[in-house]
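User: Here's a chain of 326 residues. Predict its fold as tokens.
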Amino acid sequence: MHYTHLGRSGLRVSRLCLGTMNFGTHTAEADAFAIMDRAVELGINFFDTSNTYGRSVSLGLTESIIGRWLAQGGGRREYVVLATKVYGQMSGQLPDPNLDRGLSARKIIRGCEDSLRRLQTDRIDLYQMHHVDRTCPVEEWLDAMETLRRQGKIYYVGSSNFAGWDIAAAAATAQHTRQAGLVSEQSVYSLANRTVELEVLPACRHFGLGVIPWSPLGGGLLGGVLAKAAAGRRATADMEQKVARMRPQLEAYEKLCRERDEKPADIALAWLLANPAVTAPIIGPRTLEHLTGALRALEVKLGDDVMKKLDAIFPGPGEAPVAYAW
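Assistant: Prediction complete.
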């Protein structure tokens, strides 16, 4: 396993982050335990979750599963860099508007206490805001995070799905108030969705935030979707629409992967890992095979010729599309 610093912080995390969104919904608890055990064996020390994961079954379910795994001991909690999130709508015994989406100080501090209880731990290594709340002053949520940090309940603060302006505003406010501020941003980012290169990535690089890409395979588009369809695997109607819209690009992409004798998913992850702004793409395995299969990406080296071809297939924002043949 390879490791790097999380943004400008001194915290060292694995170059792959274990995403847990499937735990409790698509992955049974026993299988989730096996995936987490194997991740640790492989050197993955960076785990990402959220207080809303598991919503379709029970709010907080995924955090509870991780908590029961951590409670087994054996050095699990000491090893894992644990990241979770706050913002989403939660529920209580009575209708409560302060449990709706948002980042009020009350919501953040209460959310942290609830997550700590479900995770069966006394601290969260990286506490992330799942979305920006433009109805709440930046000073309010920064102060709430700083309070938790000084209490030792969280160590670092991150954002998710923030715009470049939101990151800049948070950095300026933190500097003015002499607070630690953000160390990371979690954004949707892949070859198939490069919008963050326009403003978010430049802001992250300028202010020293590590980038944690989610959906690094473009929701499955970059995982060999055409080859899977040819092998008889059925796709959802939504996926079929996306494939139809991007078929020329996907054909060129999978052809390039075959020429390189690499799996499409490995090329997609290796492309992200080659970006100096990227800390660790999030992989969200449903099975052990999905987990172990992702490790190959750490060894794939993409030369300048391949990077240029990938840029031609999937141009960045503002780039004119070019021919897919070479």
